[in-house]
Amino acid sequence: MPNQLSSGVQPCCSPLTREPLTSDWAGDLARMFKALGDPVRLRILSLIASREGGESCVCDISPAFELSQPTISHHLKVLREAGLLDCERRGTWVHYRVIPSALAQLSAVLSPEPGVVEGSACATVDATNHLAVLQRRNP
Predict the structure, then answer these.
(1) More confident residue, 50 or 133
(2) CA–CA distance, 3 with 83 (Å, rounded to integer)
(3) What is the pTM of this model?
(4) Is residue 121 scored above 70 in pLDDT?
(5) Closest CA to 76 of 51, 54, 90, 58
(6) In contact, 54 and 48? CB cutoff 8 Å
């Protein structure tokens, strides 16, 4: 998935407030946001992310919805193609997990300040300077 990382610009420093997005990166982000724009897909992502171990089998997901298994599989495919989920086949079941860097990208691009999204590539929030970041935000 192309993004501003390939052009040498880190996608974690609040690009919306720092500089305009490139058309390629805006397209990639729009696909992710569009995938999350469906309530079922948003719930599926949340269900997977909140499970112990951070992954879930389709057999764990389907009972949470009044939808057919093929419909659930379609929604999982959309989330995978948007770059939000990864999967691994184990026997007859496919196990899904959220891609943390994708969520960090979505969070960082909407963050009002650079470097405040924990887990992003240029996050400045750590145990020693967390207070300094908070003080800059709330003088």
Answers:
(1) 50
(2) 12
(3) 0.70
(4) no
(5) 58
(6) yes
